[in-house]
Write a structure and sequence with these properties.
single chain; flat; mainly alpha
Amino acid sequence: MISFNIFKSFKKPTTIKTLGVKNYQIYASLNRLSPGVDNIHLDVHISSQVHNALKKTAFLLMVKHSGA
């Protein structure tokens, strides 16, 4: 069994203040949606640290469940 703690890749625990999250307002008009359209696409930024941790975790889950 492969064991991987994604939090080991972080240098120190993250707090809300150190995330650098900025408060802002967005305007998302639904007027242009056609009847039957049920998805809304919003772009978000994922930090490279989170991206790398998720990439490693996804790889290890694929290995685990593939029976390799």
